[in-house]
Amino acid sequence: MTEEKPANPAPVDEDPTLAANALKALAHPLRWKIVCTLGDKEMSVGEIVSHTGTSQSNISQHLEQLRNKNILTSRKEANRIYYRIRNGKLLELIGTMRNVLCPANLDDRYQGDDNG
User: What pLDDT score was predicted for residue 106?
Assistant: First the structure.
């Protein structure tokens, strides 16, 4: 049996910390809900609060973490701050993760697997 090699191997000098930190930021349920709510749209903090059903202060803290990990970008217009996913590649990754990891797919994929 031959061992499969990655299609695009990472450069030897690439620091995996950035990717690991971004994935860690997405691993929180509320932050995941935020990026799924945003999708390919730009939304104000108030709109995100309405869609997620949690407090503005809580959402703001999580938005800041996502922005600091370069997952989201923001812009200010008058007294409102608008957020969106930073770029198309991140949007594509998040879409793929949703397709693979949504509960329905996990149930089908791991049905009968007790190893978690």
Answer: 58
**Are 70 and 20 a contacting pair, CB within 8 Å?**
no
Q: What are phi and psi of 81, to 5 degrees?
A: -115, 130
All structural domains of the chain, each given as residue ranges with its CATH number in brackets, are 17-109 (1.10.10.10)
Alpha carbon separation from 71 to 13, 19, 23, 116 (Å, rounded): 22, 10, 10, 28
CA gap 80, 37 in Å, rounded: 18
Q: Are 32 and 26 in contact (CB under 8 A)?
A: yes
- pLDDT band, residue 108 (cuts 50/70/90): low
| Range 32-60 average pLDDT | 95
pLDDT of residue 3: 64
Phi, psi of 83 (to 5 degrees): -120, 150
The arithmetic mean of pLDDT across residues 39-55, rounded, is: 95
